[in-house]
Write a structure and sequence with these properties.
four-stranded mixed β-sheet, 3 domains, Transferase, Pyrimidine Nucleoside Phosphorylase, Chain A, domain 3, four-stranded antiparallel β-sheet, Pyrimidine Nucleoside Phosphorylase, Chain A, domain 2, binds uracil, alpha/beta, 434 residues
Length: 434
């Protein structure tokens, strides 16, 4: 068996055996299979897909590429959540400390920016010194002491996902059911929480553009979770326009801190409460949605959730001072308001265009392993359904240079549409799949 044969088999639409998938992932890890071969294989999987058995084998092979933990031994109330990726999706920054403040534990492996979507680790690294590269012993110590860990893939923890994730990011192979499902579920399997809430995004700023596709992806992941002995629920949530107002790493951190102070945008706050509620219900820590939401609202307003966020930053070597003084977060050189060329109601705010603009400003990567600029991005002042006067501010661009800001403005204008009559904003949540 060799890599070319396995790539050719998938290229021709054939089904790979467990043995072939294990061989490929082991080769990727040992270096006997090169990155360019992995990239070709990813494209073959992207184009040809994988059946449920292949996806399960891939998930298991990726999880077993590193150490397998059982976090429930350290934290019996460990619950995990994971988003399939979106624009302005800073939910983990709020939901993880929020549910920890309500008595749960969160031990989570998150990702970096993927394609036009942002990544939790890039956002958290806006805090000087923050480290997502934790040894297994540190991961478990932090969990035991603080009940909250948000780490990255390391040579010890799902290293195969670390490699494939970085390659997918720059080879246009992200939006594939088996690749997304195995990437997410291998991380859940390796860490060991048995209760998982999946936030499956749908719309222009997500990898699934229709509700039908999102429900199908949710079904694949829930089935995978069951096959692996876990309980999962999926919230199918809107990603046609960005979530909240901020898009870009430190800008999103600032918005998350505002939200943890009870002063975040309504849509984002409500989304965090929805995901947190599902985590509380699945972990059997509340009997009804109403009870869960009331507990979580209390933890937000009392400041307990913000304290748990400070724990997270400090425990992973970050300097928490920006939490009390937001001006200490990375700041862009150029801050340029962009005004509306016409009056009306915003009828479209294309999340993908906003995500791509933020990426071009430097918030995401174009090449594997590139550093990101934590300061840059976009803050939206108007969203779908809002009325705007001609010349009123639509958004603010945070850029490294005037040129970059000008390019961003031209692109962002394409993200908006206006109508003369009132427009209903899209729903935040389409359905919950159990
Ligand atoms: N999040 C992940 O961890 N992997 C994906 O493929 C998409 C979102």
């Amino acid at each position: 068996m060799n890599a070319q044969e396995i790539i050719a088999k998938k290229r021709d639409g054939l089904v790979l055996s467990k043995h072939e998938i294990d061989f490929f992932i082991k080769g990727l890890m040992s270096g006997s299979i090169a990155d360019y071969q992995a990239a070709a294989w990813l494209m073959a999987v992207y184009l040809r897909g994988m059946n449920a058995e292949e996806t399960t084998h891939l998930t298991e092979a990726m999880a077993h590429s590193g150490r397998m933990l059982d976090v429930e031994k350290t934290a019996p109330l460990a619950v995990d959540k994971h988003s399939t990726g979106g624009v302005g999706d800073k939910t983990t920054l709020v939901v993880a400390p929020l549910v920890v403040a309500a008595g749960l534990s969160v031990a989570k492996i998150s990702g970096r920016g993927l394609g036009f979507t942002g990544g939790t680790l890039d956002k958290l690294e806006s805090f000087p010194g923050f480290s997502s590269d934790l040894s297994v012993s540190r991961f478990l110590e932090n969990l035991s002491e603080y009940h909250i860990v948000v780490a990255g893939q390391t040579p010890d923890l799902v290293p195969a996902d670390g490699k494939l994730y970085a390659l997918r990011d720059v080879t246009a192979t992200v939006g594939s059911y088996p690749l997304i499902a195995s990437s997410i579920m291998s991380k859940k399997l390796a860490v060991g929480a048995r209760t998982i809430v999946l936030d499956v995004k749908v719309g222009r700023g997500a990898f699934m553009e229709t509700e039908k596709e999102a429900v199908e992806l949710a079904g694949i992941m829930i089935q995978l979770a069951e096959n692996l002995g876990k309980r999962a629920a999926a919230v199918i949530s809107d990603m046609n326009q960005p979530l909240g107002r901020a898009v870009g790493n430190s800008l999103e951190v600032k918005e998350a801190i505002d939200t943890l102070r009870g002063a975040g945008p309504d849509d984002f706050t409500s989304h965090c409460l929805t995901i947190g509620t599902q985590m509380m219900l699945l972990a059997k820590q509340a009997e009804s949605e109403r009870e869960a939401r009331t507990i979580l609202q209390d933890r937000l307003l009392s400041g307990h959730a913000l304290d748990r966020f400070k724990d997270l930053v400090k425990a992973q070597d970050g300097d928490p001072s920006p939490i009390d003084d937001l001006s200490l977060l990375p700041q862009a050189r150029v801050v340029r308001p962009m005004s509306s060329p016409r009056a009306g109601y915003i009828s479209r705010l294309d999340a993908r265009t906003v995500g791509l603009t933020a990426m071009d400003l430097g918030a995401g990567r174009k090449k594997k392993g590139e550093p990101v600029d934590h300061a840059v991005g976009v803050v939206l002042h108007k969203k779908i359904g809002d009325s705007v006067a001609q010349g009123e501010e639509l958004c603010t661009i945070h850029a490294e240079s005037e040129d970059a800001a000008q390019r961003a403005e031209a692109r962002l204008l394409e993200a908006f549409d206006w109508q003369d009559h009132a427009v209903e904003p899209p729903p935040l949540v389409y359905q919950v799949v159990r």
